[in-house]
Every structure is written in C-alpha cells, then in structure tokens.
Design brief:
Mean pLDDT: 91
Number of helices: 8
Strand order of the largest sheet: 1-3-2-6-7-8-9
Radius of gyration: 17 Å
Structural class: alpha/beta
Helix content: 25-40%
Low-confidence stretches: 145-154
Largest sheet: 7 strands, mixed
Number of strands: 9
Order of helices and strands: EEHHEEEHEHEHHEHEH
Strand content: 15-25%
Length: about 270
C-alpha cells in the first residue's frame, strides 16, 4: 500500500537539511497532526517547531482506515488494538496491521532519505500508536534499499537515523530481544547485517505524561527499558501533567534541545 502524506516544506529561503517523519495517533489524521504540532504547540519562548527549525521538511503520513474488531467501525489506525487499557490483551491481532504499516513506512523513509542525502538526516517520530509504529519501523530499517542501492551517501557516516522521538507511546510485543521483537512481524528477510547497528546507533527521545489516561506512563517506562535492552541510548522525560499529548512548554523545550543536539540547524 502507498500512504498519503501531509507535507510542510522548509521555510524559504532555507536549504533543506533534515526531514522529520511524524506518525499521528489512533483515530487522528495527518493534517490535524501537522496543524497541532507545528502551529499550536509552543515552547517556553512561544516558538513553534516549524519556526525553530526552518530547514526541516516535515512529513506526516496518513494511516489507512482499518477495522476496529471490538466495535465493527473503521478508524484511521496503524494497526488494531483489542484493549487500549491492556496492550497485551489479544496482542496477536496487532501484528497484521503493524506489519503492513511498517512496510509502507519503510518506503517513505527510503524516499525521504534519498531526497535529503541520507538516513542520518531523518528523524522518525510518533505519538501514541504512531510512536509504537515508529519503533517497529526503525527495527526493520536497513542502510540499503530493497535493490541494494546504498541510501546513505556519506561513506564515513555510521548507519543511523538522526533520531527517534516517541511521545505517549508503548512498545508492541515488549519483553523480547531485538531479534525476537522483529520476528513477530515476519519481515526479517528485508534486513541485513548492518540493521542492528542502525538501531543501536540511533539516539532516542521518549516523552510521557504521568497523568496520561489512555497509554499509562508504565507503558512508556517499559518502552524505555525495551530500547535500552536493544542497545539504544534512550533519553527519558516524564512530566507530571499533559494527559495524552505532548507536555507544553517544557516538553517542547526538551524536544527542541534533543533535535539541536542531533545537529539540526535552528533559526538565527
């Protein structure tokens, strides 16, 4: 499947230096996610992300409509969840949609990497179910595309993304090793010997609000522990309030500092 995307281009006259691919949550849309994140969420200086990082191309993929097994309705969702209060309840139902979404998102990552000059200029991000999907997308990325053409053009750059950013998220099929977690989706044949290095070299930023009523903060801590077990450097931020969203302004401040630390230019 090919996913539609809402795209916000770098601000003129800035040259395109990085791309952030941001996945929306369950039941949301790419356009609403773009408007909320880039227009309304502000840091402590009242700056938006688009103003802070004018050389970034922002890409918001749109999840397909999928059947919600518990209600018979169709929602925009990356995969189906049987019980949002217990992510492990009939967890096997998540695998089909998650596998299809990961394959579609890998194509977007490859396309954007070729456009901007390498995987090391791509930030993969998501909120809630979008973050859960972003994690599994990272786990199934390879430094080379499906035809053997190298995506990263800088030979001296180790395989990595510029960053992984997860907000109010969880890790589907948690508790296993990196290899065991990958096996759940049955996509191992797309990986190569450098894929483990790509995962472990990618810095991660995790943000969760303690009062989140949908994805409990315990799931965020489990996600953090899972990434650390995979060998990743996971930067954890827990906030007292913000519910099922991004804490503001401190959470936006922290996200900006993380992106700056990955070498993304800020506005002068």
């Amino acid at each position: 499947m090919e996913l539609g995307c809402s795209v916000v281009a770098p601000l003129a006259p800035h040259k395109h230096t990085h791309t952030v691919i941001f996945l929306h949550g369950r039941g949301d849309t790419s356009q609403n996610m773009a408007d909320s994140l880039l227009r309304w969420d502000r840091d402590s200086r009242r700056r938006s992300l688009i103003d802070t990082f004018p050389s970034v191309r922002w890409v918001f993929p749109q999840a397909e409509e999928r059947l919600v097994e518990t209600s018979g309705e169709t929602w925009n969702q990356w995969f189906d969840v049987w019980n949002i209060l217990d992510m492990t309840d009939r967890e096997e139902l998540q695998a089909v949609g998650l596998s299809a979404s990961v394959e579609a998102l890998r194509r977007i990552v490859r396309r954007e990497a070729k456009s901007v000059g390498g995987l090391d200029r791509i930030v993969l991000a998501g909120i809630s179910m979008g973050g859960a999907t972003a994690v599994h997308t990272l786990l199934h990325l390879s430094p080379e595309d499906g035809h053997g053409e190298v995506v990263d053009t800088e030979n001296d750059v180790p395989p990595r993304l510029a960053g992984l950013m997860l907000f109010a998220s969880w890790l589907p099929f948690a508790g296993g090793s990196l290899e065991e977690t990958r096996e759940v989706l049955g996509l191992e044949e797309i990986l190569d010997s450098e894929s483990d290095k790509l995962v472990r070299n990618t810095p991660a930023f995790l943000s969760h609000c303690a009062d989140d009523p949908l994805v409990f903060v315990e799931y965020g801590r489990q996600l953090r522990d899972g990434l650390v077990a995979f060998g990743m450097d996971a930067e954890w931020h827990e906030y007292p309030d913000g519910a099922h969203w991004i804490n503001s302004p401190q959470g936006i401040d922290d996200a900006i500092e993380f992106l700056k630390a990955q070498g993304i230019p800020t506005a002068k």
